[in-house]
Specification:
MetI-like fold; about 75% helix; about 0% strand
């Protein structure tokens, strides 16, 4: 990451987005922060979808009392203030791409679990599931071969929203000063540093990173909407 001999320089030929208060190229910092945000976003989304899809499929297929117990566990986790837990863990054990990804994923599987459960409750009364039961298919086979593949549309769409949410979480943590630490920085760190110097007129340290957060999150949401429209048969018939 190139370092300039001067600090807080406005955009110029050598530095398209200017330099930071420490003399580093803002464009390089922006790209490095974006890499970290996307790594956490995709990794945490994968963790959340895997846990949530399996949990929701089991709950929906089993039904009855066990289904009620599993959903009450989800309700308990939903009542926990997630941001406070992340802050406590980040302060106690430090923040890294891996730790934040696992932590965000461990609290983000709740919504996918509810969505997949709802799909499974609808699918389990279909003829092909009844035929598989008559043929002697086990519950594991029903989930792996029949239920989850048919709920894949909901899972894929939810991945994009999980990535967007994780990026916002990382930005919030970084802005509060509990995100990734040097040499790994995220967009929240850059935004927090830039706000300190905003009254001095150093706009290039705030607006570009803010625009990146908005555009990336919006892109994830638009991709999710497009996937939902393409995967939902009922919407394709319009």
């Amino acid at each position: 990451m190139a370092r300039s001999s001067t600090t807080n320089q406005p955009p110029e030929a050598g530095f398209p987005l200017g330099t930071s208060n420490q003399g580093y190229d803002e464009l390089a910092l922006l790209m490095k922060g974006g890499q970290a945000a996307l790594e956490v976003g995709f990794f945490s989304a994968a963790v959340a979808i895997i846990i949530g899809a399996l949990y929701g499929a089991i709950s929906g297929l089993v039904g009855g009392f066990l289904d009620a117990v599993l959903m009450r566990i989800v309700d308990v986790f939903l009542s926990i203030p997630f941001l406070f837990i992340v802050l406590i863990v980040a302060v106690r054990y430090g923040a890294s791409v891996l730790s934040l990804s696992l932590l965000i994923g461990a609290f983000s599987w709740l919504v996918p679990a509810r969505l997949v459960r709802g799909e499974v409750l609808t699918l389990r009364v279909r003829d092909f599931v009844a035929a598989a039961r008559v043929a002697g298919a086990s519950r594991t086979r029903l989930i792996a071969r029949h239920l989850l593949p048919n709920a894949l549309g909901v899972v894929i769409v939810n991945v994009t929203f999980q990535v967007a949410d994780a990026i916002l979480y990382i930005a919030a943590l970084g802005f509060l000063g509990f995100g990734l630490q040097w040499p790994n920085q995220d967009w929240g760190d850059l935004l927090s540093n830039g706000v300190t110097y905003l009254q001095d007129g150093y706009w290039w340290q705030v607006y570009p990173v803010g625009a990146c957060i908005v555009l990336v999150v919006m892109a994830c949401n638009l991709i999710g909407d497009a996937l939902r429209d393409s995967l939902d048969v009922r919407l394709r018939r319009r």
